Amino acid sequence: MYLKTQKEIEKKKEQGVFPGAVFAFIEGDKQEIHVIGEARIVPEALPMDEDYLFDVASLTKVICTTSVVLKLLEDGKIQLDDPLKTYLPEFKDESISIRHLLTHTSDINTWIENRDELNQEELRAAYLTLKAGENLGKKVKYTDAGTILLGFMLEKIYWEDVIDIFQEEVLNPIGMMQSLFLPKASNRIVPTEQLSTGEVIHGVTHDPKARILAEHAGNAGLFTNVSDVIKFVEMYLQLGSVENGTFLKKETILKLLKDCTPSGKGHRSLGWDLKEDEMDGHPLLFHTGYTGTFLLLDVEEHSAFIFLSNRIHPADHRDEYIQNRDEILSIYLKEKALKKK
């Protein structure tokens, strides 16, 4: 399945773009998982394993935070165009809505002085003072602040730590039983970056904001593996259905295939980026994670491409990786289009 894409991924690994990867293709009722390279090369090499858990970084946003917010919208417990302040009264700005945060159109000024040196309480307090910019609702500007603030909102609604909400409302119902937050052991976890001290981040969240916020982080922090991610993706491809019933309504999934930005021209859905099929232009759901992960879902044709890599191990070469990632995606989309001819 997708042989050209497989060869391109293998080539990128050989070129050192990432030490290893676990990736999967879904096509109708067929699933294919591939494992290449090493899970770790510092301090010594360790072969990649299909069952290993990855710090999937911002995939946490769509798998967890967006999912819970969508469920609340379905239940009528929140309204998409209500100000965040309606549900999180301690948030200072009255102009930023839930839609703005989900579509990255808040133009929020995210600069926080000495951010990575603050403790959990100080960082939370700082986020509550952030304000919208002059392009509120007009432009897409991707930021972690949106899902961090939505995480605080969820805690206010459920009166629980956000990672416990994610466990109860997302991981358990979908059956993602190997996935977790704040791991206690690191033996099955793929390490990430090597710090200037020589220490390798391993079993600890790579994102510094999520690392500080810990149990209160809605932007990153999920550790998961390919089999659990497949369960999440299949829920979308099955239009919200899971083994034990309905996780999201069919109408909710289908609405996500439309531009949900205030202008309708921002190419973003609720939580998701929107790409287009190369054959007929129908919408695809897409999201990335800083650590070297992405999801590309074609709900209409029941197909998906799941990619989990350790591209920041041992060093972070972000710009180079993004170019190579986009080349992989381009080959996949072309190969996908050719399959329909």
From TrEMBL:
Keywords: Hydrolase
Residues in Beta-lactamase-related domain copies: 7-321
GO-annotated molecular function: hydrolase activity
InterPro entries linked: Beta-lactam-related, Beta-lactam/transpept-like, Diverse_Enzym_Activities
SUPFAM superfamilies: beta-lactamase/transpeptidase-like
Keyword Hydrolase: yes
Pfam families named in the record: Beta-lactamase (PF00144)
Stated name of the protein: Beta-lactamase
Organism listed in the record: Enterococcus phoeniculicola ATCC BAA-412
Source species taxonomy: Bacteria, Bacillati, Bacillota, Bacilli, Lactobacillales
